[in-house]
Amino acid sequence: xLNKIWASFFVIAFVSALGQSLxxxxxxxWAAIVTxxxxxxxxxxxxxxxxxxxxxxxxxxxxxxxxxxxxxWLARAFRPLMTRLFPSIPADHPAMGxxxxxxxxxxxxxxxxxxxxxxxAMKELQSLNPEKDRATNDQILFLVINTSAxxxxxxxxxxxxxxxxxxxxxxxxxxxxxxxxCSTMVGLVVTSLVQGIKLWDPVVLAYLGGMTALVxxxxxxxxxxxxxxxxQQSSVISNVIIFGVIIFFLGLxxxxxxPVYEVFVEGAKDGFQVAISxxxxxIAMLVAIGVLRASGSLDLALDGIRWSAGRLGLDTRWVExxxxxxxxxxxxxxxRGMMLEAMTAHGADSFTGRLVSIIQxxxxxxxxxxxxxxxxxxxxxxxxxxxxxxxxxxxxxxxxILVTYMFFG
Length: 409
Hints:
This protein is mostly helical and 409 residues long. It has helices at 2-24, 28-68, 70-85, 94-107, 111-126, 137-148, 155-163, 173-195, 202-223, 227-255, 260-277, 279-294, 297-311, 322-327, 332-346, 351-362, 366-375, 385-408.
């Protein structure tokens, strides 16, 4: 899928430039396209190298949390909910432990731990599957929760925003938390309705109702404030929470008598490798997106949508976030490239820069997760997994647009 999308950007750019040369007589697009390839390749390299320091910092901190037992702590906290959402899994089956640990790792943004745990959980769920090529209800629900991606600490978003010059990289934390919560809740509710899961179970209601009340309270509180006060308090609260998490992770590691400096350095080394490893992927996507924009075809498509929205009397600033939103379910690296290109073009602290940051963190790459998780156990009949996953994606994107207007509009 990504191969076709990437190649299509160049083909569309060529056809667009050729059409404007022949029909309008404007030959300037050819120079703009070629220049963009050099400019975006340079930008991609500079962004990747600039990420190194911040990536080392945060992966070092996350390693403290991982080794200190934050994943275990979250797993124990959510185990009663998971056992009721997956009632057909025997209580003593190893699949339940892997599911809970995977969810906890995802919440903390520990992709390096979450993916192996997720694949292990899917393999263990497959051992309970009577039809090996057909997804079970438990496998589908597990996948949908993964694609909706509740992430309590969206480290990657903060890192990119910091690198691209955001005055306060974490000011999107609370809006992002609201958007990803909406995505997960819609995915969970839609899948539960299809599968007949009893959401009115007292324990399920206590968990989901409590989380909904908390998020609803946050929305009500901030909606009662003036715009300037809202932005100020959101920034302060976000930074207090983020630094509180750092202290919590450090405290857990010290409580376990871990060599905190050495553990931090161990994680920071991974940060350096991650920053270097994304260089070719980032350059590939940024060059393709830059070519598409330089040809005028991307702006032409967005102008059409902007005109239609304007005719309906809608504010049109959200249209700039559409490329990231449309790419998000298809490709993680593609959506990341769209996000970075938008932030580079408009500024990290612009409405568009904040919108694409929130969209990027509101949900996961549905088709990639589906392909990897189901492909790992040979499932071909995915049943309602795609529809439920896309419902969660849509909810996350709509929520991202709404909270961006609420906090930064």
